[in-house]
Amino acid sequence: MTDRKQVRQQVWDVLRGVAKPDSRFHFDFNEYIPDFEGSDAALARLTALDIYKQAKAIFITPDNGLEQLRAQAVRDGKVQIVTTYGIRRGTVEIRPEHVPAGQADYAATLDAMEKIGRYISLAELKERYKFDLLVTGASAVSRTGVRFGKGHGFFDLEWAMFYQIGVADSNTPVVAVVHDCQVLKNNLTPSAYDTICDIIITPTQVIHVEGAQKPTHGVLWDKLEPGMMENISSLRELKELQERGALNGGERR
Amino acid sequence: MKEREAIRKKVWGDLRRVARPDSRFHWDFTAFIPDYEGSDLCAGKIRDMDSYRQARTIFVTPDNNLAVFRANCLADQKAMIVPTYGLGRGFWQITPADAPPGAEEYASTLDGLERFARPYPVESVPPGDRPTLIVTGASVINDEGVRISASPSYFDLEWLILQALGIVTADTPIIASVHDCQVVEWPCEPQPYDAVVDWIVTPSRVIQTGHRYPKPDDRSWEQLPWSVISEVPLLRNLYQQKSHRVSES
User: Fold this and answer.
1) Which residues of B8-40 are buried (b: 16+ CB within 10 A; e: fewer)?
2) Which parts of chain A sit beneath pLDDT 50?
3) I want to staple B181 with a disulfide (CB 3.0 to 4.6 A). Which of A182, A243, B14, B247 is the partner?
4) d(CA A9, CA B125)
5) Which chain B residues contact residue A22 at CB under 8 A?
6) Predicted ipTM?
7) Nearest residue on chain B to A32, judged by CA atoms?
8) Taking a contact as any Cβ pair under 8 Å apart, which residues of chain A between 25 and 44 contact chain B?
9) Element (H, E) at B36
């Protein structure tokens, strides 16, 4: 883990030169994953892929580097599901028809998405959606698809929750959008807990990861960081669904 | 001090019921001043005030409850000076020309300022670009206009920086826009670096505080803890220039 911290710090030192500040956190990458120079070129590479063109419902993380993707998804008529920052207020559904004309860029910001979108529970997600694509940012990612976030494991948690309610499965493509400087030269050996990305997209390249594995264990309740259960209502909802046996049926795992 | 904290906690409890969370800070009122039900009414009341009508440039804090007010300013062809959050990157300026028609609401948010605003070079401001009105939020304020805030608050620091540079003066009126539950009847002497508020606007009323406190001046800097000064680069530079001047004279 200390290794990962060190690697993250090395990447951040370089990233600082191409990153854009956050409206609250400035350049404190411990608190957010930044937008960067060339994210528009990365976005163009992503939207040219069939997995994007054919997607109807996309999960997108609330990382700043994906703001333009969220705006583009509105313009392209996609439904998107976005978690609130830190999953503190759960998950938001943004349907293109809810976004007033000309407001796609605004709707894509964290400050606006909860005003324009609406909160959606896991139970409702489970009933109405199957994601065609998951897109995330990262602090760093290896060419073997192992990603580091800010260090709290939010994306691994999101994956685990979505897997458990069946809106994502092992075949749902996971794409990481990062700057080239965030792609690690050294290959990291994936652990069973890592949600391995299938595709890594940078401003200059599209990297396909062979045989990207996803965890199938769901949320590991005894491995949660302190405070997560109290702070993340989606986790409490998931636990309740699990205890009620509401997750049974469908793909058995 | 203990009583001060107790009052803040009590008000935050009441505020929680009418407030809106921040996109990043959730409900952590130590990190931000929230928007609340009726903030649009406050913005409407300020719109009717002479100091607003006459202003070409307005200093507005980056508090969430002032988003509607900031959008109004742009729609009413007013320029704004807005500090970045926590003074982390100095000050923004934004004019109606910076945000296309229809983007006023977007530009009024902190995420929108990142996109539409430009840095405001405080050290070389043409006199015509100086604000003639100051509008701030507050955690808690008493009916005399003394803010019961973290001490010193970012607003105190912002005011001191702009005052030191001649961008605002003791005569520049200060309006605090708050929810009714944030106004308390609790007499309290301001700190030497407190810029006491001249008008309080809530969703239901407009209060002229008529306070008797002078605005802070150069001597107030001596009361600022070094731990605060050293945290904000702009403040540190100004302080060092000031102490240099003092030691020369």
Assistant:
1) beebbeebeebbbbbbbbbbebeebbbbbebbb
2) 1, 249-253
3) B14
4) 38
5) 24, 114
6) 0.94
7) B24
8) 25-26, 31-32
9) strand B35-36
DSSP B13: H
Element (DSSP H or E) covering residue A48: none
A137-153: pLDDT as tens digits: 999 999 999 998 888 88
Alpha-carbon span B168 to B8, nearest angstrom: 28
The pTM score is: 0.95
pLDDT at position A205 is: 98
Rounded CA gap, B50 and B52, in Å? 5
Mutation for B interface: A106, A154, A231, A234, most B CBs within 10 A: A106
A84 touches chain B (CB under 8 A): yes
CA distance A105 to A170: 32
- Gyration radius (Cα) of chain B, Å: 17
Q: Where are the alpha helices (DSSP H) in A54-152?
A: 67-75, 104-107, 110-116, 122-128
Condensed to tens digits (0 to 9), the pLDDT of residues A63-84 reads: 999 999 999 999 999 999 999 9
> Alpha-carbon torsion A114, A119, A125, A129, what sign?
negative
Alpha-carbon separation of residue A27 from A19, B94, B109, B157 (angstroms): 8, 22, 19, 21
The chain B residue lying nearest A106, using CA atoms, is B106
Compute the nearest-CA separation of A85 from chain B (Å): 6
- The two structure tokens encoding residue B2: 């203990």
Strands A79-83 and A57-60: parallel
CB contact under 8 A, B26 and A89: yes
Q: What was the pLDDT predicted at A188? A: 78
Q: What pLDDT is recorded for position A248?
A: 61
**Which stretches of chain B drop beneath a pLDDT of 70?**
244-249
**Residue B247 has what pLDDT?**
52
CB atoms within 10 A of CB A10: 13
Cα B139 → chain centroid: 11
What stretch of H or E contains A201?
strand A199-201
In angstroms, rounded to a whole number, what is the distance separating the alpha carbons of residues A209 and A183? Answer: 13
The C-alpha atoms of residue B151 and residue B170 are separated, in whole angstroms, by: 20
* pLDDT score of B246: 54
How far apart CA B232 and CA B160 sit, in angstroms, is 12
